[in-house]
Design a protein that fits this description.
The complex is a heterodimer. Chain A is an all-alpha fold. Chain A has helices at 2-23, 26-42, 50-81, 90-103, 107-119, 123-130, 134-151, 153-160. The chains are: A mainly alpha, B mainly alpha.
Chain lengths: 169, 113
């Protein structure tokens, strides 16, 4: 249990970032992260190395996100088509636009891209977590980036006018 | 690797050929792509998540609150049962009539005038 708690604490922020973009709902992401913890805590065998643990925990998270999207698919589309809320903060607007652009991607491209961008997993780690080759991961990330670059021209141009930080993890 | 691949590899901390990266960034298109991808990363990485994560942990999710409520109810019920049990036993004992410790008998005496 103590191992599970330490493991969960180490990956909590990355998990939440990944899940909140993967399902597009912050509250749902928190609940799913909690579900990941329940699965990890209830597991009879936790992988030994840090790398294996990271892959394992994100594989669980991805499966939960897939289940969630399957359950909530119809409602998510309804929310996406709802008229914009009056007085919504600009940052929230951008976040919603990003979620909508992500929702247009192929689901596997999106997961692969998000594991890299939000949680900093390497191509090899993502390949293991998603049962792909590293070359396929690179190709899918590349495709997702080009599609998002095209979809998010306005927000990207706005982001480039503010100071940026290149993050590697 | 083409220009896109080498810039992605650089951005993703994957192995890349420095000469290829130099060539890619030597062109305006390559530099523009790099800046766009860094900006895209900043948009996708929602920085508020770290702070909301901490707040979420402090506030607890609905599931956590349900679990806490269930635990509190269990403790209260348990405590109530533990407290109430002697009282219940005492009340059950009250249904049985007490044993007399002394007996007063009345006898008929002479009638009053």
């Amino acid at each position: 249990m103590a191992d599970a708690e330490a493991l969960f604490a180490a990956h909590h922020t990355g998990l939440l970032r990944y899940l909140s973009r993967a399902v597009g709902q912050a509250d749902a992401a928190r609940d799913l992260a909690q579900d990941v913890f329940v699965r990890v805590a209830g597991s009879e065998r936790i992988p030994e190395s840090d790398g294996e643990r990271r892959i394992w925990i994100f594989r669980i998270a991805r499966n939960l996100a897939i289940d969630y999207r399957r359950r909530e698919g119809v409602r998510s589309i309804a929310r996406a088509n709802a008229p914009p809320e009056v007085g919504r903060p600009a940052a929230q607007d951008v976040s919603i636009v990003v979620n909508e652009a992500l929702a247009l991607l192929d689901p596997l491209d999106r997961d692969v891209f998000l594991m890299r961008e939000t949680a900093g997993l390497s191509y090899a780690e993502i390949a293991t977590a998603c049962d792909l080759t590293a070359a396929a991961v690179r190709s899918r990330i590349h495709r997702a980036r080009l599609a998002l670059r095209d979809q998010l021209r306005g927000p990207i141009a706005a982001a480039r006018r503010a100071p940026l930080r290149a993050r590697w993890t | 690797m083409d220009n896109h691949d080498v810039i992605s590899a650089f951005l993703d901390n994957e192995p890349f050929d420095p000469a290829e990266l130099g060539a890619a960034l030597g062109e305006p298109v390559g530099r523009d792509l790099l800046l766009d991808l860094v900006a895209l990363r900043s948009l996708v990485r929602d920085e508020s998540v770290g702070t909301t994560a901490a707040r979420g942990r402090a506030e607890g999710s609905p599931q956590q609150w349900i679990a806490v409520g269930f635990l509190a109810a269990s403790i209260l019920f348990g405590a109530g049962a533990a407290w109430g049990l002697p009282l219940l036993l005492h009340q059950r004992g009250a249904d049985v009539p007490p044993q007399p410790d002394h007996i007063v008998t009345f006898e008929t005496g002479p009638s009053a005038p």
